[in-house]
Specification:
Length: 372
């Protein structure tokens, strides 16, 4: 998705083709406003049961789906994919912006065909969302002029409907960010289309809450993109991938998916990892300590020297770090170590447990805990 922030040097990688004839584009089929959920009624040969259709699982196939085993099977996957692209991708964009008087068309979200071929002409167009930030800015400006609060409620009604359909077809349960919510289960819509629908609707929903200054504590939608999960899983430990899918929204997931992941050599150590835990295997004696870019290895001392106890005054003069820590613990305080850059050594402090009453000029305002 072109409108998302990408890591430095990374390019948009998700390619989505749209091959619907121009006379069947969303804006060519009059819908408008609150009739958006009933778009299928305006499309020839589409019924409500087909919009919500999910194939039945067959027990004799270990939970799989038996082809031609259901009555009145739905349309072909290609027809279904194009229909939901037209409705939930382009239709969502057009209707949400139209609420504020910002007009846009399907054409503005399709990459022009620059290479013409006579014998085998290109019919599909590549979807681009590069113009989305510009339209969101126009939406913000329109709100500043009209201050029409009703637009927020109408936009949320459309976007929540999109989330309802995506969750119905893609989510295995109702618990958000379950590690099993990785997208398409039995939906005949491509992973690319599903990801694009979630990405665009999420961005519009996030923009709505920001423009109208509304608190947004909900995570949306329930499901995640299977495509993003699989790409992240190939680049990172499975435990890391599951955490990313659970903790990040789709914009963060897309950023990680576009970023450089672990090397193949690093991933070899994670062959036993699961969604629930990291089981990385590192041979004894091979772990290499990672240094900060500004750290000069030549100056590194694995056993830093002790340069003195600072606070509080304990009436003692420890000469070793171990001795200073023991003195602090004898007073029922928590020992805190701090690096003194001038003296190139560690100083010690004693914190009152569960309290922050010490003088800020003498004690560190926070404690950083590092672990491997």
């Amino acid at each position: 998705m072109d409108h998302f922030v990408h890591p430095e040097g990374a390019k948009p990688w998700l390619k989505l083709a749209y091959d619907e004839p121009e006379n069947e584009w969303y804006e060519k089929i009059p819908v408008g406003g609150f009739d958006f959920p009933n778009f299928y009624k305006r499309v020839p040969n589409w019924k409500e049961e087909e919009v919500w259709y999910v194939p039945k699982k067959e027990d004799d196939l270990l939970g799989g789906v038996e082809e031609n085993a259901v009555e009145n099977p739905p349309k072909t996957p290609w027809d279904i994919d194009r229909f939901f692209q037209t409705w939930l991708l382009f239709g969502t964009i057009i209707e949400v912006f139209r609420l504020s008087g910002v007009e846009t068309t399907t054409e503005e979200f399709l990459v022009p065909i620059t290479l013409r071929s006579v014998h085998n002409p290109q019919t599909a167009r590549i979807v681009t969302t590069a113009k989305l930030p510009e339209l969101i800015q126009q939406w913000r400006q329109a709100h500043q002029k009209t201050r029409n609060a009703d637009v927020f409620d109408k936009a949320l009604k459309i976007l929540d409907f999109v989330g309802k359909i995506v969750d119905y077809h893609c989510a295995n349960g109702k618990d958000h960010r379950s590690i099993h919510q990785y997208g398409k289960v039995l939906w005949s819509v491509s992973a690319e289309t599903t990801t694009a629908i979630i990405a665009v609707a999420h961005s519009l929903r996030k923009a709505a809450f920001a423009i109208y200054n509304k608190p947004n504590e909900e995570r949306w939608p329930v499901t995640n993109s299977r495509l993003l999960y699989q790409r992240i899983q190939r680049k990172w430990c499975r435990s890391d991938a599951a955490m990313i899918m659970e903790d990040f929204d789709i914009d963060g997931q897309y950023y990680v998916a576009a970023a450089t992941g672990r090397t193949l050599e690093e991933l070899d150590a994670h062959y036993g990892c699961t969604d629930q835990s990291c089981e990385a295997k590192i041979s004894d004696g091979t772990y290499s300590t990672q240094h900060d870019p500004d750290c000069h290895v030549d100056d590194y001392d694995p056993e830093p020297k002790f340069v003195g106890h600072v606070y509080p005054e304990l009436g003692k003069s420890p000469t070793t770090l171990r001795g200073a820590i023991m003195d602090i613990m004898d007073t029922n305080r928590l020992p805190v170590l701090r690096w003194d850059n001038e003296q190139k050594g560690l100083t010690t402090y004693g914190h009152e447990k569960d309290a922050y009453s010490e003088e800020s000029s003498k004690c560190p305002p926070f404690v950083a805990i590092s672990h491997v």
